[in-house]
Structure formats: structure tokens, C-alpha cells
Task: structure prediction
Amino acid sequence: MSDHSTSVFAQIARASEDPILGVTVAYNKDSDPSKLNLGVGAYRTEEGKPLVLNVVRQAEQKLVNDPARVKEYLPIVGLADFNKCSAKLIFGADSPAIQENRVATVQCLSGTGSLRVGGEFLAKHYYEKTVYIPSPTWGNHPKIFTLAGLSVKTYRYYDPATRGLDFQGLLEDLGNAPMGAIVLLHACAHNPTGVDPTLDQWDQIRKLMRSKGLLPFFDSAYQGFASGSLDADAQSVRMFVADGGECFAAQSYAKNMGLYAERVGALSIVCKTADVASRVESQLKLVIRPMYSNPPLHGASIVATILKDSNLYNEWTVELKAMADRIISMRKQLLEALQARGTPGDWTHIIKQIGMFTFTGLNAEQVAFMRREYHIYMTSDGRISMAGLSSKTVSHLADAMHAAVTGVA
Amino acid sequence: MAIRTAITRRITSSSSSSILFNSRSMSSWWGNVQPAPKDPILGVTEAFLADPSPDKVNVGVGAYRDDNGKPVVLDCVREAERRVAGNLNMEYLPMGGSNKMVEETLKLAYGEDSDLIKDKRIAAIQALSGTGACRIFADFQKRFSPDSQIYIPAPTWSNHHNIWRDANVPQRTFHYYHPESKGLDFASLMDDVKNAPNGSFFLLHACAHNPTGVDPTVEQWKEISYQFKVKGHFAFFDMAYQGFASGDPERDAKSIRIFLEDGHLIGCSQSYAKNMGLYGQRVGCLSLVCEDEKQAVAVKSQLQQLARPMYSNPPVHGALIVSTILGDPDLKQLWLKEVKGMADRIIGMRTSLRENIEKLGSPLSWEHITNQIGMFCYSGMTPEQVDRLTKEFHIYMTRNGRISMAGVTSGNVEYLAKAIHEVTKAA
Result:
């Protein structure tokens, strides 16, 4: 008789903590009152509190108070209104690709889910199985694409010397990529560096990619959050669509609508023709069905309610700009605080970088030092979430950075 | 690689002006993508919605309808939603989901006083309903038992095949349904269990088998469990209908409890889609029983590693509804009452459908309608007969003859009986 009480999984080792989400786990365990969480990219108010947007609360009330609402399964591709509105948001309402019905859009589980579904589609239907991701990038990108069945290579992106873009390195590496390779591009507010190409640089990237038939896969997690303008933050994507070529775009509403936990996002594939888009959509369903059958209802309903109502939409743009402005203000304050302390080094990258994160340039030892001595939590690559700062806590952070830079190699 | 050559030719032919290359001249990357076949289950509702006939009946997808044929949001759910709306922030759940919701959910499957829960021996994460729980398990199985296959009952919910296929786990079927008796092929099932290599992985429906509605008896479950012990097999239970089958969640979990009593270290997928009517919220749970707490911690951490590159962390709204209901004794009582109400209506419709067909003088036996349990009736009709039902009577069901009893109402049961009699009387 076999021993059925021995687990078939007895040999399993405990996985290490997720490098990003693990920061919050550690932060929560810390009992020091001055602790500061600059780890995960979730927006905080000046009071250090999470924020639910007013438009979201209003949309939620509308939904709750509507007795006709039911909880039936969404179609596999998700909520139709949500998909239409999302495509318009990223590509522009007047986008010819939309008007020509060339865009296949499916609701997915936030940015992660959109990337994963797109990746699995590519692994099944595309002839090139390599995706080039920028170095560095969001820690979850390589895992998503690997599990989707693609192989991952990197292209140069961040220049530690300038704390800006290594544009020549980027062009060289993409220039050396095989024909048709997939290239992951951060639409704006690059995570973790906050370093974005200029519009002119984007155009050069576009031309290079089109000349080599490289397939653009945009990750748009911060539209509206970077500059405060939804349209400005979508320029890179729209430039690629305007030249008539094909591309992928993953959208997330986690940050710009504060819907983090509801897992709301969309994957759009811009195709050459409407017929191709229709076939592509049908195949996307076959990827989604064995993963989770159909996407969650609540978050998408909130988004659709807001995007379809011009008053709510306008209110949203105002709240979004306020979040972006507060972050820009924190950047200024942090720079001023470091300059006031005479902290050695050039810290102007803090205001040159854009979006939720600053790639400080601090090394792992300095990061660990700041955690131990100052109870400041960030990822070990030196990335800080500006959204986690407030006017009250800026000086604590500046003190810690000063001590780390002057005291720790 | 014809495509690559064709594209290369196109690009190099215009490379003289490569900087000003106009990508409009390139063809689509996706020109060779075939239109995918419609999902056999979800495609039925699509077709139903497109039908303009006033007589149309949808007994396709397994979503509960009240006696007016309308979708239902349970009172306990509306109340829970009122309580949670506007009160809580939207911060990311942990990768493993809502701990509170998972705790309550484990109690349902494993028992309120389960020692396994007390001893923290269960690795569990919130999952995207039953589909998501099965998929994460399939991915986990692939990663940590890479040489294993999965034995799936014949027939089963069609998406089970897709799930384990996309996880790259080879699959085989085991005998389950006995077409002649429209019941369980127990002898062949046991043969398959005995003949499978020791330590094989089996997918079992805990109750209310989908699509057949045929469940083993308690005695049969005990025999299956015993044989699993002999062979050292791994049992993965898909429990999508707890409470919905008999009306009593404890009774519906009997198969699982039998295996637990026998000391099996099972896996389990749970869904709140049907029994709480939370279909579109995608709320469920994946759990794996481990030898001890340390192992459970390790296994849970690995489950999270699979969730992170799929969706990072699960959606909060449905989980809040579940934990609000199950965490409040009054709401929980209300829920139990409402679940029983749904199950009772379905049992009533089974009786009514059978009586109506028999009244019409059908030459065939229809006792399987009331013998089978849960949301579905495996009618025994052929795909051709189903096609006739759709074409001539605007009745929509999956082509395997599966009728969703939840779509049957006192208003349409006679019409349905008449149509079924019409297409089967000459059989």
C-alpha cells in the first residue's frame, strides 16, 4: 500500500518574497512610528493615506443603487463599453485605427493580465518568440513573458552615469535585434527609472523599429499620471499607430483611476485590417478562457461609468492632474531638501525623471542602511515611489539619503 | 519560414529609403491567424441573444435564473454590497488574495472545526473563480510534478481540457458516465483508477458533476477513496456547486470529507459563481492540503509565484462580498436559506420537466432527470436532436445534450417538454 500521507509536493522549497510586494510586507511588520513606505507604486495623499477618487465613489454609488444591475458573467472579452472607451482613451477618440475597426480590445486583469494575455497570444500565433525588454524594467515583466512562453532579452535603456536615457545604446540594441522581434516599450513614466524618451527620440525609435519590422508592445500603466495630461502621456503610442503599422498596447487603470485592487485593464491589438482584428479577437478568447474564463465585472463597470459620462470624465481629469501635480511638487521638495543639506552629487535627475518613481541611484547597501537606521522602505534597486512622500516626510527621507550617501559606500 | 521571407523581401526592397520607411506597405503580422471556433458553452448564449423569436429558451450556460427566467442577485449579496460600497480603499490585495475570505472559504470545504485549518496545514489562495483555481493548480502541477498527467472524467466541463492543455499537462480521461443507464459507470471508473500508474493525478467533481449531474453515492465515494489510498493517487476536487446540489453545503462536501477522513492530501478548487451568484465577480479559492504548516507556507508561496505573472493579485470586490456575508452570522444564515431556495427550485423543475414529458407519452425513460443532481441534466439527446431543438423550437443548449435546469421555469417547462418529446419520440 502506497503511503498516501506523504505529500506529492514534499520537496517544494519556499519561494522568496516578491521584490516589490515584499517591501510592503516588511514595512507592515515594522513598528517604528517614523517608518515610511516608498516601495510599491500606490498613490498616497499628502496625509499619507490611500486615495479613492471622488469620481470612483460616485460611479460606485450609481452602480450600487441601480436595482437592475446583475452579476452575470461578462463575455470572455469583457465589458463592451469598457473596451470601446479604453481604446479611445489610449489611441484618441479620432484615431483612424478605431474608426476603421482595426483594433481588437479585450478587458484584462490590469496591466499584468493584459501583458500576460498578449504574451500568450504572441507565443501561440507569432513567428518570433523573443521579447526585448528595457534594462531595467518592472520586476514582473520578465516573469510574465517567460510564463507566457516567450524568451526574454534586454536592450539598454538607463544610463547610470547621466541617470537618464542611454539613447545610443537603445538604438544599437534594437538595431541588432532580429527582424520581427517583439519590443516592450513603456508608453510613459518608465518604471522604475522615470526616464522617458523625448518625442523626437520616440520618432527615431519608431522609424528604426518599423524598418526592422520590430513589433511594438506598449505597457501603459501611467496615462495621465506622468504629465497630468491624458493625451500628452499617450503621444508615444499614438505616434506608432499614426504610421499605419501594427502594435500591442496594455493599459492599466490601477494608478490613474486608483482602482488597484479591482484589477482593471485592457489589451488592444492594432491590426492592419478589420478582418484581421476580428480573427485576432476570436483567438484572444481562446487564451483567456482557460485562464479565468471571463474578466471581473466590478472595476470595469466603474471605469465605463466614468468614461461614458462627460461630467465624471472631466472631474476625473481634474483629480488625475491633482495627483500628478502633487508628485511633481514632491520631486521639487526632495531636490531642494537634498541641496539644502549639501548632499554630495547631482540630484537634478529627481526633477527630470517623470511619473511615480525616482531612480535615486542609491545602491543596495545604502537602501538596506536606510531601512535599518531610518525605517525607510524601498526596493533594493534604489527606486522610490514619490507618491509615498509628503511635505511632512520629505525631510526624514532627505536626512536618510544624506546619511546613506555620506556614510555608506 | 515563408512569412519571414516574404516580409524580409518587402523590407529589403524598400531599404534604400529605410529611414523614411512607410509601414503602410507591410502586410499584417496576423494574416495567418485563423478565426477561432466559438466556445461550445459561452457561444450558446451568444446565439440565443441573437435570436429574435419570442419563444426562445436558454438552457445553455449554467447561470441560475428565477422562475421568471431572470438572473438573480441574492439579498445577502445586495446587503453585503451596500455595506462595502464607499467604505474601503482600493489598495492591492496580497498576491494570495483576501485572507479573511480564504479562511471562511476553507471552512466551507473542510468543515468549521477542521483540524487541518487549526493546524494551518492548508496552502490556499484566492483565485479567479473555479477556472482560475484550476488553472493555477494546473500550472503548479506542471512546475512541481512535471512528469505527471491529469486524469479527467469523461465527460467533463469542456474548459477543463483547455485549462490543463494550456498548462502543458498531458491529459487522459477515465470512465465516468454510463450512457445506457444515464448514470455512473462505476465498474469502469474503478478499473481506470486501479489501472492508472501509482501516484496519478485525478480531477474529481466534488458534487453535481458537470455536465452529467451524475454523482457517486456515499458508498461509492468511500470505495474510490480507498482505492486512491491503495494506489497513492492525488485527488484534485473541483467544487463549483457546493450548496447548489442538495441545498445543504455540508452534505455537498461529503466526498471531500470522506477523502480527508481517509488521510488524503487533496487539492480543491472552490467557486462562488453559482452558490453566491457572483458569476461576474470571479471569486474562488485554490487550496492544497500539506503535511504540516511549514510545507503549507512553502506551497502557498509557490502558488503566489504563479499568480504574480498572471494577474499580480486578485480582484477585491467579490472577495469583500464573500467575507462580509460569511463573517456575519445573520448574513450567513440568509445566504444558506437563499442557496437552499435556489437548489429547491431546480429540484422542483426536474420533477416538473420529467412529469411533463412522461405526460406526453414518451416511449423513453426520463427518470434520469430526477436522479441526476445539480444545475445540469444530461438528457441523452444527440447533437442532431439538439440542433432540431434550436432550429425548430428556438431552444438553446450545448450540443452534448446538457440542459441547464436553472434556465427551466414554470413558464417554459411545458414548451420545453413538448419540444424534447417531439425530437426524441421517434428515437
The radius of gyration of chain A is 22 Å.
